[in-house]
Amino acid sequence: MSERIDDDLLVCRCQEVTAGEIREAIRKGATDVTQVKLRTRAGMGLCQGRTCELLVQQILCQELGISREETGYSTPRTPRRPMTFGTLGGEGFDD
Questions:
Q1: 3-class DSSP assignment, residue 17
Q2: Has residue 76 got a pLDDT over 80?
Q3: Is the pLDDT assigned to residue 52 strictly greater than 60?
Q4: Which of 35, 75, 81, 95 sits between 20 and 30 A of 28, alpha carbons compared?
């Protein structure tokens, strides 16, 4: 198995989630990538896990003693264009 990742390592740069936060989520019951994502937001940023998912899987494997296939995969969602609250509230739209 790979070398243990330091708890201070920033695993998800988009959401600023560390390896320690991922391990904490696992201690609290997360057993796959989706559960880690829901507890930490790792993989919910602009890259949708393309940068961090492999590290999240590696940490799950190390902590739980499971195979990479057992960690599952995240479901990517296409990022949309940012929108202001004013736009959502109707400012700038013609009636």
A1: strand
A2: no
A3: yes
A4: 75
Q: State how far the Cα of 95 lies from the Cα of 61, in Å rounded to an integer.
A: 55
Q: What is the arithmetic mean of pLDDT over 81-95?
A: 69
40 is written with which tokens?
Answer: 């930490």
- Token readout for 65 is 């003693």
Task: Say what the pLDDT of residue 32 is.
Answer: 96
How far, CA to CA in Å, does 76 sit from each of 4, 18, 19, 46, 73? 26, 20, 21, 10, 9
Kindly state the helix (H) or strand (E) to which residue 54 belongs, with its residue range: helix 53-64
CB 75 within 8 A of CB 34: yes
Mean pLDDT, residues 66-81: 80
Say if residue 48's pLDDT is above 80: yes
For the chain, give the number of residues: 95
Q: How far apart are alpha carbons 40 and 18 in whole angstroms?
A: 9
